[in-house]
């Protein structure tokens, strides 16, 4: 039972850290009162952005920048099936950017496919082992999606070691403090 409550604590801290720093490359989130006021406007803006990007994609279906931005727009709209589809298309055309593997892994995790998420996160880490955010995301997916606290701890230690003073390093440190409170 203690392990389950520790996982719950990690999840709560994880959600707070994601909102503050994000595992993905998204912008900082507005305050809750601002979110309630901005949600309809942002939803409409996101729908317009998606429509615009879909149109641009029809003109140039292999444009990796448009595909990636479309994946991000779908991610922001919490349409993770669509974000995964577009991120994978970018990888087919132009693999290599750790941010892309990070975004794909996080989308897969939110779809409940944490094992596949870790596979892509590991591919991204192999491409760039110094990418701090992907280590934070891997720790989050391992802890929250797979219940692997030892693996999560190792990932967060790596994220923290890469730059302990950054927001990502501090978030990793907070995760580690929670896990080490056994």
Q: In CATH, what is the class of the largest domain?
A: Mainly Alpha
Instruction: Tell me the β content.
Output: under 5%
The value of Rg in angstroms is 17 Å
What's the CATH architecture of the largest domain?
Alpha Horseshoe
- CATH H-level superfamily of the largest domain: Tetratricopeptide repeat domain
Tell me the CATH topology of the largest domain.
Serine Threonine Protein Phosphatase 5, Tetratricopeptide repeat
Could you explain how this protein is built, in words?
- Helix content is about 80%, strand content about 0%.
- It has 2 domains: about 60 residues, Alpha Horseshoe (Serine Threonine Protein Phosphatase 5, Tetratricopeptide repeat), CATH 1.25.40.10; about 70 residues, Serine Threonine Protein Phosphatase 5, Tetratricopeptide repeat.
- It starts with a helix and ends with a helix.
- The N terminus is likely disordered.
- The protein is an all-alpha fold.
- The longest helix has 28 residues.
- Helix 1 packs antiparallel against helix 9 and helix 3 runs antiparallel to helix 4.
């Amino acid at each position: 039972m203690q392990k389950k409550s520790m996982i719950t604590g990690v999840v709560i801290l994880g959600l707070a850290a994601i909102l503050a720093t994000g595992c993905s490359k998204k912008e900082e989130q507005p305050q809750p009162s601002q979110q309630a006021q901005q949600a309809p406007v942002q939803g409409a803006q996101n729908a317009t952005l998606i429509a615009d990007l879909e149109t641009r994609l029809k003109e140039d279906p292999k444009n990796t920048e448009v595909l990636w931005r479309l994946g991000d727009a779908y991610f922001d709209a919490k349409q993770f099936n669509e974000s995964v589809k577009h991120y994978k298309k970018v990888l087919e055309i132009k693999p290599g950017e750790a941010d892309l593997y990070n975004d794909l892994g996080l989308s897969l995790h939110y779809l409940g496919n944490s094992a596949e998420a870790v596979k892509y996160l590991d591919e991204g880490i192999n491409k760039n082992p110094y990418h701090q955010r992907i280590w934070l995301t891997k720790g989050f997916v391992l802890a929250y999606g797979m219940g692997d606290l030892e693996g999560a701890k190792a990932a967060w230690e790596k994220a923290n070691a890469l730059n302990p003073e950054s927001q990502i390093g501090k978030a990793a440190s907070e995760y580690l403090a929670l896990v080490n409170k056994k």
